[in-house]
Specification:
Length: 303
């Protein structure tokens, strides 16, 4: 099994990514940390706890950064609903977070692990930047970071910027400069791997987990035609099925100010960084593979 830590802001697609990861026996989720993003961190934390409880798991949840390092916080509640996970009646009596902050919990979990751990951030990278700045000795113990965020093309928050990177561009810059191997799962693939209406209908018939996911997806669907993106789920899909994805290596820099703030700039000519690269960027995926895989994952979920 691959040991992973999910750093997230659930969030409808984060919730789907967590659901898959908690249920797939090839993955061992050692810790879930939360960050402000789609909604405030008190809400993303509550949502993470609700999911762990829903699936009857014992995964610790640690609450993280309330706001980005420098940039003022702007949420995405208009897309993810006021709660961040609307449309399903989750149990309100969920467990508690661990006492440590996300940064401390990340540090301890990574240092205690006998083998290196994979980090899977699906929100802004604030907790990870704080961790790397405060405890740089963790770096060799992180095997790689599979991060949802960024785009080689257009953004979804501004013309230039994707939401997670836009939310905390300074954190993104720290993460991309860390020297840790990074896989960038950006809009270049997540806007291709759309879940079709047919898949959504099927998911709704697949037990209580399917019902839960279909219920929270409804809210998301309102804003999208021709299928809904499941951005964050692509991190887990890549982890389990890298063969589904075409990738290319680039050096990625982050715009941290100006009208293109939050843009992920790839050194496409290779000239600026002398041919060096800091990321493996996912650039292509077949939507049918993704839809079929997702249905199978939901089929295997146990509540
Ligand atoms: C990213 O932004 C968030 O709204 C989603 O959860 C995803 O992580 C997509 O741009
Ligand atoms: Ca997210």
């Amino acid at each position: 099994t691959t040991k992973i830590i999910m750093d997230c802001d659930p969030g409808i697609d984060d919730a789907a990514a967590i659901s898959v990861a908690l249920n797939n026996p090839a993955l061992a989720v050692k810790l879930i940390t939360t960050v402000a993003g789609n909604v405030t961190v008190d809400k993303t934390t509550k949502n993470a706890l609700k999911l762990v409880h829903f699936f009857n798991k014992k995964v610790p949840v640690a609450s993280g950064a309330e706001q980005p390092l420098i940039k003022p916080f702007e949420d995405a509640a208009r897309i993810h609903g006021e709660s961040g996970m609307p449309g399903y009646n989750f149990d309100e009596l969920v467990g508690d977070t661990v006492k440590h902050t996300a940064m401390e919990a990340l540090y301890q979990t990574i240092m205690k692990s006998p083998e290196p751990i994979t980090l899977v951030p699906t929100g802004a990278y604030t907790n990870i930047a704080l961790l790397l700045a405060t405890h740089p000795e963790v770096k060799p113990k992180i095997s790689r970071i599979i991060a949802m965020g960024g785009s080689l093309g257009r953004g979804n928050m501004t013309s230039a910027a994707e939401f997670n990177v836009y939310t905390d561009p300074d954190a993104a810059q720290i993460m991309y400069n860390s020297g840790i191997p990074i896989v960038m799962i950006g809009l270049d693939v997540t806007m291709k791997a759309l879940l079709t209406q047919k898949t959504l209908n099927t998911v709704g018939t697949l037990g209580e987990a399917g019902n839960m996911l279909a219920s929270i997806f409804k809210h998301y669907y309102e804003g999208h035609e021709g299928g809904i993106p499941m951005h964050d789920v692509n991190t887990i899909c890549y982890l389990l099925h890298p063969e589904f994805y075409q990738t290319a290596r680039y050096w990625i820099d982050i715009q941290t100010s100006g009208p293109a703030i939050g843009e992920t700039v790839a050194d496409i000519r290779g000239a600026y960084h002398l041919g060096n690269t800091n990321a493996q960027v996912a650039v292509g995926i077949d939507a049918d593979d993704f839809n079929q895989w997702f249905i199978e994952e939901v089929q295997n979920m146990k509540t």
